[in-house]
Automatic annotation (TrEMBL):
This is tRNA threonylcarbamoyladenosine biosynthesis protein TsaE. One of its GO terms (cellular component) is cytoplasm. InterPro entries: P-loop_NTPase, T6A_TsaE. It comes from SAR86 cluster bacterium SAR86E. GO terms for biological process: tRNA threonylcarbamoyladenosine modification.
Length: 146
């Protein structure tokens, strides 16, 4: 379920005409946040390893003119710690940001998609909330077609 949802989001990202796109990932430890990002990156033709940014705080990927930032804020406790990551840096590329543990941001951001991941009894569940109904429709259509 998680990798398929990642492919659906990757498909939507591939067709986006937005300069910046931000996804917030909520879920307990082991809920599948990094697995979801792995599915997105693989759909976008990333062939190398995708690791959790738990220790590095931010993993960066450049794929086909896109800068993708995968951020883990689990151990972040101050706004200064977030500012060091320079999430709002200017770039000529399309910038896609995935933020795990967004409640630790301690500031409001312009988020496009919020995904809540949950796992119970060996099953994973996801709910999406999208700012743009066309984006939500694109993700759901791809997901349901597979």
């Amino acid at each position: 379920m998680t990798l398929l949802l990642g492919s659906a989001i990757g498909n939507t990202i591939k067709n986006l005409d937005l300069k910046n796109f931000e996804v917030h990932l909520n879920g307990n430890l082991g809920a599948g946040k990094t697995t979801l990002v792995r599915g997105i990156l693989q759909y976008l033709n990333w062939t190398d390893v995708v690791t959790s940014p738990s220790y590095t705080l931010c993993e960066e990927y450049e794929i086909d003119g896109r800068l993708l930032l995968h951020v883990d804020l689990y151990r972040i406790h101050s706004i200064e710690d977030v500012e060091v990551l320079n999430l709002d840096r200017m770039t000529a590329m399309q910038k896609i940001i995935f933020i795990e543990w967004p409640k630790n941001l301690q500031t409001d951001r312009n988020v496009d998609v919020i995904i809540n991941l949950d796992h119970e009894n060996q099953a994973r569940h996801a709910t999406l909330k999208c700012k743009d109904s066309n984006i939500e429709s694109s993700i759901k259509t791809y997901y349901e077609s597979k």
